[in-house]
Design goal:
Layout lengths: L8 E3 H8 L3 H10 L5 E2 L10 E4 H11 L3
Helix pairs in contact: 1-2
Length: 67
C-alpha cells in the first residue's frame, strides 16, 4: 500500500508512542523493511528526518496481529 496525498506523515517518536515501543525500535523496523518509511534529507553520514505514513503504521499493526 502506498502513501496517498492525504496520508499523514508521522515522526518516529509519534509512531513509537502509537506502537508502545522505544523510538530505536521504530528505526530498526524501518531499516529491516517491516515498517514502510521515508527519509527526508541527503546527509552524507546519515539521512535525517524519518517519516512514516499513518497508513504504514496501520498496515504494520494488521500484519502483526496474532490470530
Amino acid at each position: 500500500m502506498e502513501a496517498t496525498k492525504t496520508d499523514v506523515m508521522l515522526k518516529a517518536p509519534e509512531v513509537a508512542q502509537t506502537l508502545k515501543v522505544h523510538v530505536t525500535t521504530v528505526y530498526r523496523l524501518a531499516r529491516a523493511g517491516r515498517l514502510r518509511a521515508h527519509h527526508i534529507g541527503q546527509g552524507t553520514v546519515r539521512r535525517r528526518g524519518l517519516r512514516i505514513p499513518e497508513s504504514a503504521v496501520a498496515e504494520f499493526l494488521r500484519e502483526s496481529a496474532v490470530a
